[in-house]
User: Fold this.
Amino acid sequence: MKIVFAIASLFLTACATTKFNLGNEGLPLAPDYSNPAHWAALPSKQDNADRTPADSILDEQSTAEVDVFFLHPTIYTGKRGDQPWNGPIDNADLNQKVDETTILNQASIFNGVGRVYAPRYRQAHLSAYFTEDRAAAEAAFEIAYQDIKSAFEYYLQYYNEGRPIIIASHSQGTTHGKRLIREYFDGKPLQNQLIAAYLVGIPVENDYFHEIKPCDSPNETGCFVSWRAYRKGHFPKYHTKNNNIVVTNPLTWTRDTTLASKELNKGAVLRKFDKIYPQLAEAQVHDGLLWLERPKFPGSFLLKNPNYHVGDYNLYYLNVRYNAKERVKAFLEKN
Assistant:
């Protein structure tokens, strides 16, 4: 069925085996952020962060007063085998998958409020989250973070020009994004430029930052939101109730545990990225997770996996888009 949208197919596609351009230490060569090719999205070039899923939704980057620094999730998911722990910057197959999945379906959310910057980075392999070889995993995550750190410093030096910033991320992007915020924003002068952070798909503790707090209203600024979506009633393996994990309801933008009905959902965007699906998904905060009933769309009966991780943004696409507008408006009015 061509119209079937299997959420799991959005991002968890295998990376094709190709020859990797490795340095002397067996690692993929480091990115050069003066090279536009080492960015998945830049305001100065045409990319999938510029696209919109309907004619009624406009790319407004050319007139935006703020910037969005977007960190993509893990797309490097092929068999470990003889592949390096970190994905290469110059792998055309991998870059295409990044561009056609997360940049299109997630980074594009923010083109209505800011200029979108999304660095390519030597992302850690998906298995780094699950392997028993923790030393190798931590080394892989460190390499990925150092790339993101370099990209952000280049962005600050050459692109930002003192403009307000939204940090947006998903999954591995959030693993690195929350660290980036703690290092560069939390209690630092740059905190004054932070509109908000959308740290989605990875747990963020309530007290992870010293000064930056969770958002508790739709127009609050200088704060962060976070959630991880699962089918109602499902607890992931190794889950333990943790009241210290921040979960924001993306339909109400509070941490209240009251069910927010799907009537509040302004629109989801599915795999084909050619249509808005209003009222597709409800949302309820529950024990460190975001719960919802299985969404119904053509072919959704095939959606057996209760983990909706890859749909964290897509299920609430327009709500996130409009909320970013609301926070930007509030920030600019105050500043």
